[in-house]
Amino acid sequence: MKKLINIIIAGVCLLPTMWSCAGFLEETNPNAMTTSIFGSTPEELNMGLTAVYSTFKEKNLLAIVQESNRDDMTIIGVAKALPTNNEYYYKTFNSATSIVSDKWSRLYKGIFRANQVIENYYKLYPEELELDLAGEEVIIEDENDTHRFIIAQARFFRGLFHFYLHSSFNNGSVIIFDFIPENETDFYQYLQDESVVREFFLKEFEFAKANLPVEWIGADQGRVTSGAAAALIGKSYLYSGEYDKAAEYLKDVIDNYGYTLTENINDNFSEYGEFNSESILEISYSNTFNQEFNGGDDAQTANDLPQAYSFIGGFGGHQPSLWLTMAYKDDPMDPTDNRNYYEDESGIMVLRPYSLRASYSIALVDDIVPYYQTYPFEQNQPFRNQRTSYFRKHTRWETHTSEIENGLIRSGLNVRVIRLADVYLMYAEAMIKGGKDDAGIAEALKFINKVRYRSALELIGPSASSEYASSQHNEVTYNAQSLMEHLMYIERPLELSIEGHAIRTIDLRRWGITKQRFEELSTREYHVGTFTGVDASGKTINKWGSVLFNGASDNNAVNKNEFGISAVNYVNSLHDYWPLPNAETISNPNFN
Questions:
Q1: Major place of localization (predicted)?
Q2: What's the CA gap between 467 and 450, in Å, rounded?
């Protein structure tokens, strides 16, 4: 899907002088494309699908930056002088906040475009409409006739966008649009109960699961699949606390679609690893097309997340929170695993300072892995003014010396929305039923340790019952509650930080711990110290306040903490979900 299809509809009217005015008004312009004509062939339906995929890539639909500011993943600006105007970090957003209406409008725009494809599809294949409404199987006699995939993709996205609305707005009570509005009154729909919305999008996902292929090849690589639909069903059941159903679908994804963890965790964040064996749902970006559009335009095909996260060519203003930085630094490695060693200048094998997962997720000043082709401390501007870490996710540190190209911050790096590691960890949670069932501990440990082993981390639980018995384990005996706490505060945030659709925001909310999380984090204290390094030329470089430590210090070090104002401002009824957009509540009389 890297190739963008641009459809230009131009009406060209040539009016010979012998035509009468009345005759002209009665003629149908053969060159004008209308909604009643467009979509009358499979090729045109696929063009309509391109518009749906295009909506999926618009940055304010996932709103990754704003969502990560809402949760406990990021700290804004410089820790010694935090800005006071970030509504998401300080939890002062309301129904008039711009992202509220932006996210809402983009999701319904995607639904509208999907509905256009669906309506035109059933005009073209009317014999299938009654069968689909009845839930009966449609038999395609010619296996080479792939037109059925068109309706499956459109309904997948109609379900996905309703799912995102349900998990983002108004406690899940939103409008269902399963038709194309024909007049102004049609837009004024009633809010539906969250259970009705959930029933609707689950039906769409089930349809997509039954009718989409397991994989696409060639130029179609990147289109949605039946495995993605199954993963979304499992995720939805987990979000609603239906653990048995969640486990059923998540295990189906694990066993029956050919997904495998990548050998290197960085394959999930790099350009080299796009559409890899672990990727289940991925947004494709390219900085090759539509370069005339600026970074904030929805028509651009590039990914502009490096603006927020990159420290070379970006603003770097959305940094890992202090607790997250320390959690990455303290994530224990397995010293018996050769992957945790590197060869120093004298040819001696030395243990890495930080785990592979930490190094590929965030940038630390004293890490030994080069960033943007030099070591972190050799960069001129980063790691100053108490900036102690940066996100490496959503940046192209391997292939670029800066995120700026031709004066603009454009990236072709794809965004992974769902990957297998997320499914493994959701399945582990489902097996212990959210911390209430000890019977599933062995199965949960199995899949948590698969994720940890991939990054050469110390494994958890007893080694005697592990499939990686020779690896170092912490030998802790877990019950369901303590294992759930590990998932909540270590495994899911460290593995999946700033990924997907609001993963951390929704996790904290569904576990019922958002406010108490901010309150607890606000009591933690940290201090910073100076890092001294020697660059390739032998020059000594000092980075003041660039190294973060736990606890307060009495040795003239700078002490700091975070989330104090967030803890005070957060009100569950106001901030668990995005509110309904102010413009929508004013214009829609049926909202009251």
A1: membrane
A2: 9
Using DSSP, state whether 29 is helix, strand or coil: coil
Lookup: tokens for 550: 């736990």
Reported as a pLDDT band with limits 50, 70 and 90, residue 38 is low
Amino acid at 405: E
Amino acid, single-letter form, for residue 244 = D
pLDDT for the residue numbered 21 = 35
C-alpha to C-alpha distance for 276 and 280, rounded to whole angstroms? 9
pLDDT confidence of residue 33 = 53
Residue 220, phi-psi category: left (phi > 0), alpha (psi -120 to 50), beta (remainder): alpha
- How many Å apart are CA 276 and CA 43, to the nearest integer? 28
Unique residue bearing structure tokens 């973060």: 548
SS3 52: helix
- Classify the phi-psi angles of 351: left when phi > 0, otherwise alpha if psi is within -120 to 50, otherwise beta: beta
Q: Within a 10 A sphere around the Cβ of 210, how many other Cβ atoms?
A: 13
pLDDT digits (tens, 9 = 90+) for 542-567: 999 899 999 998 877 778 889 999 99
**For the chain, give me the number of helices (H) and strands (E)?**
22, 13
Q: Which residues of 212-248 are buried (b: 16+ CB within 10 A; e: fewer)?
A: bbeebeeeeebbbbbbbbbbbbbbbbbbbeebebbbb
Mean pLDDT of 78-105: 86
Rg of the chain (C-alpha set):
26
Q: What is the per-residue pLDDT across 372-430, written as a single tens digit (0 to 9) for each? A: 888 888 888 889 888 899 999 999 998 888 888 777 788 899 999 999 999 999 999 99
**Taking Cα atoms as reference points, which of 313, 311, 420 lies closest to residue 365?**
311
Centroid of chain to Cα 524: 28
SS3 92: coil
pTM for this predicted structure: 0.92
